[in-house]
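Bench notes, afternoon.
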Amino acid sequence: MSMNSFGNDLYTGRKSFDFIGKRKIWFSIALAAVLLSCVLVFAKGLNLGIEFTGGSQFTISNTQDTDQSAASDIMRDALGDESARVTQVGDASIRVQTIAQDLTNTQTEDIRNQLADAYGVPSSDVTSTYIGPSWGNDILMKAIRGFIVFVLLVTVGLTLYFRGWRSAAGGIIALLHDLIVTVGVYCLFGFELTPSTVIGLLTILGYSLYDTIVVFDKVRENNAKLLTQNSYTFAESTNLAVNQTLIRSINTSVTSILPVASILFIGVLLLGAGTLRDLALVMFVGLLLSTISSIFIASPLAVQFAELNPEIKAHTEKVIALREERAAAREAKIAAGEDVSDLDDVDSAGPAHGIIRDAGHHQGASAQPRRKNRSKK
């Protein structure tokens, strides 16, 4: 089956994945991921970059030898620093970072000379810089304030746009899930948290909401006449909306993740650029989680909250009761040997039938406008 046929079947409801019906499973997995991420943050801690901890940085330029072990040995022998971070930057540069903050001028000069000798460059090609923790902490505090303002404004905007708090709550909770689990992934694998990482975390906020809002907009379209019909429930129409936008979500995610993955590959393997690598890494993880959350968390949460509404709850019970009545009537007709084709037509139409029909589904030749007779001259 081609992707076009598959997408068309998902849109019309001929094929469907039960995302909403299995929401308890998705909620359990998401909650476990969030709890595990929180445990990792408090138990293992984040691998903070030098911008947050403070320390000294040495940069060796114009070297032909990019072996990182030599710099690690020098830092260990000179300062006893077993965790010095040595990174290749570009084709001919090495960056060495240490959290030792109280280096004397004599220690700094001695390390510069040892690095110059080890990599075969003059001392002038080895620069040293002290980085204080205040700059990174200042960026972090501004990012937190910006995030709080962003969440408040988005909550108000989504509430007004969708005319209710339920969709806004689903989108915001899914957004928080993405951020917390992304931080948990960083803790789990020991990725370094730098100011570039913080910027990347803020960048994925918009993408996470963008994909979620597209699904919610389709949910609103499908439920425009929800309470005036008895063919489908709110949960069923929402599940149809998720399936209808599934191919689009996959395509959008692929076209977004591939460039980021390319940047990540180039930054790590070819250039060794720290800022480029840090930004691409957090965006790669965040984009994957955003795609997953918009399908498995945001929409199921919106349904869970919507079913707290007495009108929607009563409508769902009414639709289910009518189906049970039709099923009982069908069994009675079968037992009596009567024709049940009229009931089969109703039951086989499925929840998508009424929604697609109302949205302009093709009604056949009889529904087309008639051409007026023209008199011949």
